[in-house]
User: Which sequence fits this backbone?
């Protein structure tokens, strides 16, 4: 049986090693399951305390995806079997996934993420935690949770709200697929290379003089990536998010009813914006309200507070929200005809939204109280 995640160490001429994590379910676009999350957390903790490891690389098997999100089928089946109940499956998966993401964000050693191909949902949660986030001409990055009755979690409450203007709200409502230029513009990535630069990069890594000094290793890795980026022949292309930010900001300005009306009545010749419009209007009306509530958090919450807020909302989506129906329509029956709890945003009740936004735990009982 193939391992769902593979751990290797690469030797370098300096005597230091590089820890390499490869997500290894190519047929499922390297989607994360709980076993993978647990294995990665354990290995990253061990490497964190190992003086021989200079830094860590996160990569995905195959050439289609780094990671297309979380494998949510187990949560779906548990939630269907126990309606209106917070299940252990939902609580365990989301709390351990968020702890892994938080560990990456707090990691002292450099974390290089090779963000080639599809990077969505939980994959973006991993990537956002990296210090050195490499994009390629094949990168396609999105937060498509509105299509399954969720909202952009895995730290989205923190990083979406720190993007330029109203871009974060736009990404959450529309599941827009960012290219590398877009992702650099909103700081999801901070380096760019050709997809076939990966092997030369690993060869070059082996020749750098890595040390025990994490800060120095950060500098060395940045220098190497900048040097390789300069010599790479990949074309970065245009960023629609950057080019059309004023229009996006205008489209996303106002309360939820106003924005819904603006998206509904939008007339455009831009294919990417037509797709974004279609996805937003087909998405869960409950998710609309969650995404607005998330955007209204602004930049007041710390990263840890953001994850705590998200965990309550995520488990509530599984027991009371549109999550099960969204997963059924997209991943289980694949009929793409979700019957949402509310057929239109104007039908959504304040009570339903409050139920989803109310944490199931007191602060001292919260599963993430120690982060």
Assistant:
């Amino acid at each position: 049986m193939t391992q769902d995640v593979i751990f290797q160490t690469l030797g370098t001429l300096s005597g230091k090693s590089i820890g390499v994590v490869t997500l290894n379910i190519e047929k499922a676009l390297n989607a994360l399951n709980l076993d993978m999350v647990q294995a990665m957390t354990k290995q990253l903790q061990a490497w964190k305390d190992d003086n021989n490891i200079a830094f860590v690389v996160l990569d995905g098997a195959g050439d289609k995806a780094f990671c297309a999100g979380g494998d949510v089928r187990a949560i779906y089946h548990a939630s269907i079997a126990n309606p209106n109940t917070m299940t252990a499956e939902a609580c365990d998966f989301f709390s351990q996934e968020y702890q892994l993401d938080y560990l990456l964000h707090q990691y002292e050693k450099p974390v290089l993420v090779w963000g080639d191909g599809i990077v969505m949902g939980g994959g973006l949660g991993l990537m956002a935690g990296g210090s050195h986030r490499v994009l390629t001409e094949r990168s396609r990055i999105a937060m498509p949770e509105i299509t399954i009755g969720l909202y952009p979690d895995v730290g989205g409450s923190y990083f979406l709200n720190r993007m330029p203007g109203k871009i974060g709200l736009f990404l959450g409502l529309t599941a827009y697929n960012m290219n590398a230029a877009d992702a650099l513009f909103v700081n999801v990535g901070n380096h760019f290379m050709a997809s076939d630069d990966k092997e030369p990069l690993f060869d070059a890594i082996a020749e750098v003089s890595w040390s025990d000094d994490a800060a120095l290793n950060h500098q060395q890795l940045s220098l190497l990536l900048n040097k390789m980026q300069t010599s790479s022949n990949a074309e970065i292309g245009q960023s629609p998010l950057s080019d059309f930010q004023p229009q996006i900001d205008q489209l996303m300005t106002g309360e939820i009813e106003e924005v819904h009306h603006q998206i509904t009545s939008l007339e455009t010749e831009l294919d990417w914006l037509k797709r974004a419009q279609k996805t937003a209007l087909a998405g869960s009306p409950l998710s609309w309200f969650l995404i607005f509530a998330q955007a209204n958090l602004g930049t007041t919450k710390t990263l840890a507070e953001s994850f705590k807020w998200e965990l309550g909302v995520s488990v509530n989506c599984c027991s009371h929200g549109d999550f099960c129906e969204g997963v059924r329509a997209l991943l289980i029956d694949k009929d793409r005809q979700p019957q949402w709890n509310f057929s239109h945003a104007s039908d959504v009740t304040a009570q339903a939204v409050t139920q989803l936004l109310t944490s199931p735990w007191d602060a001292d009982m919260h599963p993430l109280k120690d982060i």
